[in-house]
Each structure stands twice: as C-alpha cells, then as structure tokens.
C-alpha cells in the first residue's frame, strides 16, 4: 500500500517586543521545514520544502508634531524535489496499458523577497496630517532543474497482474535555469484634512520598477531511438523557451477623496467621491478611475442603512501580464514584451440596504 508519510517536520516561532515613551518595536520570526515521501501520487519521490519569514515594525516619536514608523519584512521559500519513479495505468478492459518512468536528477527552487517602508508623519494642526513614505521591494525567483526520465509503455495483463509486450521505450530530459529579479522603489506623499463635516484625503507618488528576467528551459524527448520532433538532418527539441529581459519603467500615481456628512432629523446622509489616476511609462497609458457613493442611515431602532455606489476601476498590468511567447519557424520560443497590453477595466454599480 502506498503511503504519504512525513520524514521530518518541525517549526520555530519567536517573538520580541518592547515599548517606551518615544519608541516601540516588535519583531517576529518563523522557520518551518519538512521532508515528505510522496507515495499517494503517480510520481513518487522526496519533497523537501523550507520556509523562513522575519517581520518587524517600529515607531518613533520625535516631538508632539513629528513621528515616524518603519515596516520591514524578509521571506524565503526553498523547495527541493527528487523524483524516483512514476507509474500510471490506463485503458479499457480489452486494452490496458501501463506507463512507468524511472527518474534521475532533481529540482531546486528558491523564492526570496525583501520589503522595507519608512514613513514620516507631520501634524501641524489637529485637523491636518501630512506624511511622506518611501519603500523598497525586491523579489528574486530561481527555478532550476535537470531531470531525466526513462519510460516504458507496456500491455497490462489484469488476470496475472503482470506486464507483457512492451509497446515503446524512450527517454526525456527536462532542463531549466530561470531567474527573475524585480525591484520596486516608491516615494509618495499622503495627506488628510478634516473640517466640520468634510473629510478629505489625497496622495501622489512616483515608482521606479527594475526587472531582470532570464529564462532558459527546454525538453528533449526520445522515442524508440528517434528524437521528437523527428528531423533526419538535425536534432530538435520538442520544447524550448528563452528570455533575456532588462526593463526599467516609471509609474506616476495619485488620488483624491472626500467624504461629506449631512445630519438630518430623520437620520444621517453620507456622500463620498473620489478619483484615482495612474500613468505607466512602458505603454504610455493614462488611467483615470472616478467613483461616487451615497449612504443613508435612518434613525430607526434597528441597524439599517441604504447605499448606492458607482465607479470605474482600472487594474494596471505588472511585468508578468505583459509577457508574450513568440515561436519562430524553427520551433524556438522566446518570451517578449507586449507594449500594447492595456489595463483591465471594471465598471461597478451597486445598491443595497
């Protein structure tokens, strides 16, 4: 009987925090590792993931009007997979087949991210708050594997539980050396102002995105002594993909929002309106997303409110959404960028009570 049993599993959690009049801090770290024998799936082998995550948050009080904060995070996911064999049976009662593969090699993947944000807040008046924030985010992804498989396709004798008449023997080799590095640097200003029944919020920012993408993966497949696809003049790969991308772009963002409240004898009326814009230098696209909503809270004994909202929302693409695969006449596939890729638009009109 096939089983799915963990060989090693353990987890570490640690927490540290302190507070004083002008400074507070909290730190946390997690580490988890495990090792499994995969037996319940068609592919049997050893799967060894590990995960580490560190987070910190600190606040600083410089004076009665000035304060700041820092948020930091680091995480890493590591995966190692060593397949041993794969066995699959299929077909009908009249024609049963068994497909069995023995593997050599392994796969190693690492996903590592860093994030840090520092914010300075200035409050010159009790109704006015101004902030400046700078942040940096970086992600590194590495996907590497070299796996060779020897496979047999045989008739399955269900009466004697044995294999007869080999229908085919072959080999395949999967290879990948893929690396992606993405760095996002942001500088923004945020503001908030309250006056009487008005509550206004706004923000503007600039963001630099630096992408380095390297893809090199292919698969060679041999069947009965012939490589696929078959070409008597040269050896061809059944699949290959490559990319060498260096991309540096800039985004400009901003928003303004106001909430206005009108008390009445029968309840409270609340109106909210705002607009958000985004510009990306890669596709030269301006995005403007307006929205408006209104709510009424009647002075009843039960908690009921009526609300209606309408808006236009644009989701700007990021790097992976603009990648496109292009295959030439020789079967070579290259990952290229599509500057005509635009945003996703969603129109909302909602009402409920």
Overall SS class: mainly beta
Radius of gyration: 29 Å
The number of strands is 16
Average pLDDT metric: 85
Unreliable runs: 1-5
Briefly summarize what is shown.
With 353 residues, this protein is mainly β.
Descriptive report:
By secondary structure, the chain is an all-beta fold. The protein is 0% helix and 80% strand. The two termini are 57 Å apart.
How are the SSEs ordered, and which strands pair?
Elements: E1 5-19, E2 23-38, E3 43-61, E4 66-91, E5 96-125, E6 128-157, E7 162-195, E8 198-223, E9 226-228, E10 239-263, E11 267-280, E12 285-298, E13 306-315, E14 323-327, E15 333-337, E16 344-352
Parallel strand pairs: 10-15
Antiparallel strand pairs: 1-2, 2-3, 3-4, 4-5, 5-6, 6-7, 7-8, 8-9, 8-10, 10-11, 11-12, 12-13, 13-16, 14-15
Descriptive labels:
353 residues; single chain
